[in-house]
Write a structure and sequence with these properties.
This protein is an alpha/beta fold. Helix content is 61%, strand content 9%. A hairpin with a 2-residue loop joins β8 and β9.
Length: 613
């Protein structure tokens, strides 16, 4: 029999209650941390008394550490390198200068508001440097922020957790450590942990990526468990070599694995995400059950003032100082300055601190943990309630399906992308050819490097915000598969397929899949890309007047390409069957070696060239 004091009962009850709390959070559309903390308190000693985390003994800290490792590895896995590079300056400052401002500001506020000793206040400052992906990501998803702002928030949440955990460990070593010069030991510890974690994470991530790419090494279906096992092994090796370096190690490894050309499939990401949800549920239930409401209540007005100052003073000062010369707009900076919920790393490290301080005979560990939990609740409640309202008032929500995702980044695709961008659409390219990707990036486009038929690439394209997709490669089958995936998996309303001369699909078949044949007919994508790249074709703007008599373009089909239609203020990608109306304008690519023939055919069908503008 497993009684209430047995580790098996404690773990099972925590997992079951955590799952129910997560479901409740999804139904109520609130951050899951709130019902998790509520369930933990209700099941703990201050509630029903059913859950006694200390029955796990030393296993509690081990569970917490491993859970944090998996959670942050999963967070790193979802950080796209190209988006990180675009916001690199802001992120560097947020996790360095921003962390320092939070550290100092939080310590000063706790010292003044609670009359704590400087030692205890500084420890608190080190613990609340972090924000956390476990609470940031639900807010980003529910509010649907603009991509740049969402990238900064999510990336900061993952990266600052690694930095904060190391800084907190070094701070504890300096203030509470015994023997030798604590400051010198702290500096060595900080440098050593960062160097070891980053180096081992980079090397380990590259090895995992190489293993995943080598299909003969891992049987089909075992990629998930191999990746998880490797991540936990990296964490434990790093911790064995230098404590508190494991978190940075798994974050770096996750970023590397998520961005190398490996079999990081949607299945793996879903597996990691579901495992993360389960671990968050268990850990928060256990940690909340171990906190006493009387300890939190004893903080009184000083505790509330401390949390309020973190939200309204310390965070805004840090963010505004770190983003003063960034490309973030003023509205985006204000939103970023007011949203900084604390998550699992703060809770986990605070509990470990409290246990260490108790064993070392250092007073204040209980109060420190209580204030951190009050900070978590206060910042999560504030962010969860105000984020949707702030996003609307500041106009930082992502536009409703205004983007176009184009598969293939050859010259013909880049030409269409440029026209779409000039028309006001946001354009993203996805291509597996590094040279094509570089050319698109040089022209200022967002690019996802990868195979568009693999889940990893599709996850990064952002099809949930796309108005249209265009399959524009030399492979008509790939174009069709990409378009169908966009429609059926992401609900994209418009999907266009560029057919090739060797693959002519009847309109009835395209309609069954909900796709349209792009342009005015099948096109030689590679041939037209060569023409445009070498100046053997030009793009002109033509206006439709009237068509004197029925006529067709069949004799000029391979000499021109209808690209983009303008009808008033609206635009539409040209496709087979799109009827012309008086006043329509269209961009047409014309082969220069057959320009007279092409212009004659256009005039015959009612299109007259005009000056672009």
């Amino acid at each position: 029999m497993h009684g209430p004091d047995s580790p098996g009962f404690v773990f099972g009850l925590a997992l079951g209650a955590g799952v129910i709390a997560v479901l409740l959070a999804r139904w109520l559309r609130v951050p899951s941390i709130l019902p998790l903390l509520g369930f933990g308190v209700a099941l703990g000693a201050d509630g029903l008394g059913w859950l006694e985390p200390r029955a796990l003994g030393a296993g509690l800290s081990e569970i917490v550490e491993l859970a944090v490792a998996v959670i942050l590895f999963e967070g790193g896995l979802n950080l796209e390198a190209s988006r990180l590079r675009a916001e690199a300056r802001s992120l560097r400052l947020l996790i360095s200068l921003g962390a320092l401002i939070t550290f100092v500001g939080a310590a000063l506020v706790a010292h003044l508001a609670l009359d704590w000793s400087w030692t205890l206040s500084i420890l608190f400052g080190s613990l609340v440097i972090v924000t956390g992906p476990t609470v940031i990501r639900p807010i980003v998803r529910n509010v649907a922020l603009q991509p740049r702002l969402a990238t900064v928030l999510e990336a900061e949440g993952v990266l600052i957790d690694a930095v904060g955990a190391i800084v907190a460990a070094v701070t504890l070593q300096v203030l509470v450590g015994h023997g030798g010069d604590p400051l010198e030991a702290g500096v060595r510890g900080l440098v050593g942990r960062v160097a070891l974690g980053a180096t081992l994470g980079l090397a380990g991530g590259l090895v995992i990526g190489r293993v995943l790419r080598t299909r003969r090494l891992i049987p089909e279906g075992l990629e998930n468990i191999v990746t998880l096992g490797a991540a936990l092994l990296l964490f434990q090796v790093a911790e064995a070599l230098q404590s508190e370096s494991g978190i940075l190690c798994v974050v770096v490894a996750g970023v590397v694995v998520g961005n190398v050309e490996a079999r990081v499939s949607r299945t793996l990401r879903e597996f990691e995400e579901q495992l993360t949800v389960a671990l968050i549920a268990v850990v928060f239930i256990l940690l909340a059950a171990d906190v006493r409401l009387a300890e939190v209540g004893a903080l009184g007005r000083g505790g509330a003032l401390t949390v309020a100052a973190l939200i309204a003073l310390v965070r805004p000062i840090g963010v505004l100082a770190c983003t003063v010369h960034s490309e973030l707009s003023g509205r985006e900076r204000v939103f970023l300055a007011l949203i900084a919920p604390r998550g699992i790393v703060a809770a986990a490290v605070a509990s470990l601190f409290a246990a260490f301080m108790k064993e070392a005979g250092v007073p204040g560990g209980t109060e420190l943990r209580a204030l951190v939990f009050l900070t978590i609740v206060g910042t999560v409640v504030f962010s969860g309630i105000t984020a949707p309202l702030l996003a609307t008032l500041l106009r930082v929500r992502a536009p409703e399906r205004d983007g176009v995702a184009i598969l293939g980044a050859e010259e013909l695709a880049l030409t269409l992308g440029g026209l779409l961008r000039d028309a006001g659409a946001s354009v993203v390219f996805v291509d597996s050819n590094p040279q094509h990707c570089r050319e698109a990036e040089e022209r200022g486009f967002r690019v996802v490097h990868g195979n568009a038929l693999e889940e990893r690439a599709l996850e990064h394209v952002g099809l949930q915000r796309a108005r249209a997709v265009v399959g524009l490669t030399a492979n008509g089958e790939v174009n069709s598969l990409f378009a169908r995936e966009a429609i059926h998996e992401f609900g994209v309303p418009e999907a266009y397929v560029v057919l090739t001369p060797s693959r002519r699909i009847p309109d009835a078949m395209l309609e069954r899949h909900g796709t349209l044949a792009a342009f005015d007919g099948p096109k030689d994508v590679e041939g037209w890309s060569v023409r445009l790249r070498h100046g053997r074709a030009r793009v002109g703007l033509f206006a439709f007047e009237t068509q004197p008599e029925p006529a067709s373009l069949d004799d000029a089909e391979d000499r021109l390409v209808f690209l983009l239609r303008r009808r008033g203020a609206a635009w539409q990608i040209e496709h087979r069957g799109l009827a012309a109306r008086a006043g329509d304008e269209t961009f047409v690519a014309i082969a220069l070696d057959a320009e007279p023939l092409a212009l004659e055919a256009l005039a015959r069908t009612g299109w007259k060239e005009r000056a672009s503008g």
